[in-house]
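Review this today:
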Amino acid sequence: MASTFDISPERRASSLHYYYRQLIVTPPPVTKRDADLTGKTAIITGANGGIGLEVARQLLDLGAKVIITTRSVSKGEAARQELSKGRDLPSQDAIQVWPLDLSSYDSILAFVERAKILDNLDIAVLNAGVFKLAETFDPATGYEEAVQVNYLSTILLTILLLPIMKAKNSRNSTPILPAFKEKVQHWDFAENYRTSKLLGQLFLTELAKRVDPSDVVLDWANPGFCTSDLGRETSGLIRFLFRIQKTVLAWPCEKGARTLVHAVTTLGRDAHGQFVEDAKIQPGPVLIYKPEGSRLAKQLYEDTLAELEFAAVRGIVDELVRSK
């Protein structure tokens, strides 16, 4: 992992820098001169609206075929129609809608089986996520829902797609994960959402060490606070305050999507295992650079592979390591 940046991890994580980013910074758009994706295929999860829809739009502008995923077929078809407006599409399958429910392991496995028949798969933007106001648990796995969808299911999909993308590219301590099956005494929905995302970053730092960037580039991109529907489940005072914050600070989804598009186009292998923000490689969370963070990442990596072993994920990763 790179250790030299133009800003320290502590400063980047500060509230002052957050407000600076949201109010001042504008990631530049990616043009076809920067990255021509003609002939490339991209999967974008959670693309029926918000940031995912904008990522799909920008990748289409660069010439890619896109596969957008959604839990709702009707919403997916509406998104396909929206993306098709005003476009002279090169083929009937330039925009495809595939069903995917990240709260269901069966849905993920079926999605991956379908992906295996693609002629090529070059880009995967795993954008789908949930932001839960109430503390709820997945009935199938027992994990808190944000941790289930934003972390476990997303990591499972990541690992299962790795060998497809490679082939078709034109412990002595208490386990960490079981804690997310227990109710907490004082529920903090915002803190829980951040935790579910941090888990993904910790895991990615370990996974990236084992995957050759010449096969697949893995990075973690932050689009910033945008006017998406992520807070759709809020209500009452929380909804009112959230709307005020959106009005003052939130970026248009088109602007936030630019960073995700840069992450999968212009930054290349330099971004492998890195955190991408404002269209640049940036320092990640402070914890990642501390010995405790390194220990937690290694432990979380082992815990997660054990949790997802029903899908033979360890064998997939081991095969990628052997082929480096």
